[in-house]
Write a structure and sequence with these properties.
By secondary structure, the chain is α/β, with parallel strands linked by helices. The protein folds into 3 domains: 225 residues, Zn peptidases (Aminopeptidase, 3-Layer(aba) Sandwich), CATH 3.40.630; 64 residues; 70 residues, no CATH class. It has 14 helices and 18 strands. The two termini are 40 Å apart. The structure holds zinc ion. Zinc ion (ZN) binds next to loops.
Length: 385
């Protein structure tokens, strides 16, 4: 059985703290192997490193049985309400125990170690895929991700409840998911090793010139992702219902272009067609999981520029002058838009402003601000910012 802590390096020299997680899903071992390899090599480089580095194992029990999870998906438990519930619960499930143990480590790091912090979560996918980054759309995440020569997917958290990185993001820190390839392919380990080293250089724990293989690692990821290094947003998720028999048609790869009306999967004997001309993303080719497939589209450059600008000038402060739009609380974390007004504004506008559109009741749309929580000041002095 693997240990919770795969590796830990305390250089004693002041600098950022980088925390890598692997095996949050127990059938995704590439990150665990990659971290074991990297920590071996980091020991030799020790004199040239500053700050602190952690490699942490996610779902130990699921890793031991090579399953995505034992009872429930550990990467869907990290909502504030659920964590409160777990804190007072007497008998915990396997995954709840794992969460508590990870939470203790996380809190200790945030208490004892200096920032800026970087949290990186390593995953693999069941389908063939280019390596890619997933982030919650806060500018600090976007800017740090822009260093890597791989595609970036924004806003996956709008479709998923309780991924660990969204929880860490709400605390305000840079939090980046890296999907290195298909579960059991050797290249998934190679891509992870490259990503880990590049992270340490971009976060300035290792100087570029102290890492002779820098170019090799950079080109490894650049080649593995072909010519694709755009920023994409998710426009659709096919969610599998309880009891539904869902099966992807064979042979699809993540990032493959699909046309509107193209048959993608079978559900209870019926064909599931693509609703859009888009790229297919994370088609499900394993038994466990509720997310059948996503569709994604690249975000035009001008929209990315416009959204940085609108966020910098805090354009949302002007929106609340309009009828039907108000802050839900004084902390300006949640915008409440009444549904009559919401008709005139589209989701994309609020996405540009950094909002996550999530909970709706009969009268209101509630929009959660991802930018508000970001501890931007912590990162402003960093080179990539
Ligand atoms: Zn995963």
């Amino acid at each position: 059985m693997v240990d919770r802590i795969i590796g830990k390096i305390e250089t004693g020299k002041p600098g950022p703290t980088v925390v890598f997680f692997a095996g949050i899903h127990g059938n995704e071992v590439a990150g665990v192997f990659a971290l074991e390899k990297v920590f071996g090599e980091l020991d030799k480089l020790n004199a040239k490193i500053r700050g602190k580095i952690y490699g942490i194992c996610g779902n130990l029990k699921a890793l031991a049985s090579n399953k995505r999870y034992i009872k429930e998906d550990l990467n869907r438990l990290w909502t504030k309400s659920n964590i409160k519930k777990i804190a007072i619960k007497e008998k915990l499930s396997d995954e709840e125990e794992e969460l508590v143990s990870l939470m203790v480590i996380l809190e200790k790091i945030l208490k004892d170690d200096p920032g800026p912090y970087y949290f990186i979560d390593l995953h693999t996918t069941s389908s063939k895929t280019l390596p890619f980054i997933t982030i919650n759309d806060a500018l600090i995440n976007r800017k740090f991700s822009a260093n890597f020569p791989v595609p970036v997917i924004l806003g996956i958290e709008e479709f998923l409840d309780g991924p660990m990185l969204s929880y860490i993001n709400q605390l305000g820190y840079v939090a980046i998911g890296f999907e290195s390839g298909q579960h059991d392919e050797a290249i998934s380990i190679t891509n992870n090793i490259a990503f880990i080293f590049l992270t340490l250089v971009f976060a300035r724990l290792i100087k570029k010139k102290s890492l002779p293989e820098f170019e090799v690692y950079f080109n490894q990821l650049k080649d593995a992702s072909g010519d694709v290094s755009e920023i994409f947003e998710i426009i659709y998720l096919y969610r599998i219902q309880n009891g539904e028999h869902f099966k992807m048609l064979p042979g699809f790869e993540s990032f493959e272009s699909v046309s509107k009306g193209m048959p993608l999967a079978m559900s209870d004997g019926f064909t599931v067609e693509s609703q859009y001309k888009a790229r297919l993303f994370m088609p499900l080719y394993q038994k466990l999981g509720d997310d059948g497939f996503f569709l994604i589209r690249s975000i035009p450059y001008f929209a990315l520029k416009l959204s940085s600008f609108l966020r910098k000038i805090k354009f949302d402060n002007l929106l609340v002058w309009l009828p039907g739009i108000q802050w839900e609380s004084r902390e300006k974390e949640i915008l409440r838009v009444d549904l009559n007004t919401a008709k005139y504004f589209t989701g994309p506008l609020f996405h540009l402003l950094g909002y996550r559109i999530r909970v709706m009741d009969e009268n209101y749309l509630r929009l959660y601000n991802r930018e508000h929580a970001a501890k931007t000041e912590m990162y402003r002095g960093e080179k990539w910012y």
